């Protein structure tokens, strides 16, 4: 802050507040018909239109008098910007999608099965008031208010499942599916320039499990295997607003086991727990294109990421909770949450050295303990809830997220610490 205060060219570092406001409209309609006592048919149509407004505003100059920004073409690069002025980005996104599905479900006393098919039309458009040059030379900026053409994708999916009941309380089940998915908007446009030939992502998945359900005890154990194909990632290199790399055709394999259980030893006491153990890895090395700040192509490169763990996702987690109802409609609860094997996030485009196959830095494991209270009552004819929560009761210090560094270790990583003890309370009225 002292450097900003003494600077003769404004602040070098500032705080900004990102805004993602949106208007969302749509409708959903379903049709159901029981062809027979056992065979049920369901169909539906879903239409949605989304318009989003995305921009950053200066929230704190950190001791400086002003800030200079050359990222918005409608703004003079030499304008002295103050708190509340827009910087970095200012664009509008539009997404229109129409989807439909049909499903057949067959249910008998000891088994049930279903199959469903869906298709959709996703369309994207971006309107941009001129970002995006890295120079004060106005000739490098594109024309203001560029509106792209609509970009369309047609994802489809096929899903099915079978459940078999044994002696009323045991169930074994298998579910699977293949689906395609329209890429995210950031993987369709590099700022206001369309990325060449974006393609739909594909997902194949299968799940096998067992369930036990008796009067006061519930238990589910399942294993899963999912392969993501042709996933696209667009990320800035070096810094959050540096040159951007468009990385298509990434495959990833997610596999693991999950367990859920609950036990009610007394009508007023519920004990619950969940455990997850996963192995999520990138499945292939890929090529990518790097663009500079004016969206000119810099070159083609290779990213060596095969067998590296997917970052920013704890691959071991445990949750244990207890909820007690000492008085009617008064609930008091406590929960312990544990997270482990969480690898730092990284940009695949930073992995261009074929000899560097080390995983990103693994964050320290941590746990937190939370408390909660709810009391249900009525206000006239309306239901209401008085609630209170205490998060991280023991004020544990922990790292919740991280970006990997050049050494793949704590010393070179950028980290975000989790919140200490926090509490909230309020009243919620249900209309």
SSE diagram, text form:
Elements (H helix, E strand, L loop, with lengths): L1 H5 L8 E20 L4 E22 L25 E22 L3 E18 L17 E2 L3 E3 L2 E11 L3 E12 L7 E2 L2 E2 L6 E14 L2 E20 L7 E23 L2 E14 L3 E6 L5 E7 L12 E12 L2 E11 L25 E14 L2 E10 L7 E5 L10 E4 L4 E9 L1
Structural class: mainly beta
Main sheet properties: 19 strands, antiparallel
Average residue-wise pLDDT:
90
State the separation between the terminal residues, measured CA to CA. 48 Å
Approximately how much beta-strand content do the residues carry? Answer: over 45%
Shape: globular
Identify low-pLDDT runs. 133-143
SSE order, as H and E? HEEEEEEEEEEEEEEEEEEEEEEE
Give Rg in angstroms.
Answer: 26 Å
Tally of separate helices? 1
Q: What assembly state would you assign to the polypeptide chains in this entry? A: single chain
Q: Roughly how much helix do the residues carry, as a percent range?
A: under 10%
What's the β-strand tally?
23
What tags apply to this protein structure?
431 residues; mainly beta; 19-stranded antiparallel β-sheet; two-stranded antiparallel sheet; 61% strand
Structure report:
The chain has 431 residues and is mainly beta. Helices cover 1% and strands 61% of the residues. It contains 1 helix and 23 strands. The protein has one helix at 2-6, and strands at residues 15-34, 39-60, 86-107, 111-128, 146-147, 151-153, 156-166, 170-181, 189-190, 193-194, 201-214, 217-236, 244-266, 269-282, 286-291, 297-303, 316-327, 330-340, 366-379, 382-391, 399-403, 414-417, 422-430. The strands form 3 sheets. It has a 19-stranded antiparallel β-sheet that branches. Strands 9-10 form a two-stranded antiparallel ribbon. A two-stranded antiparallel sheet has the order 21-22. The longest helix is centred in the N-terminal third of the chain and has 5 residues, at 2-6. The two termini are 48 Å apart. 16% of the residues are buried. Residues 133-143 have low confidence and may be disordered.
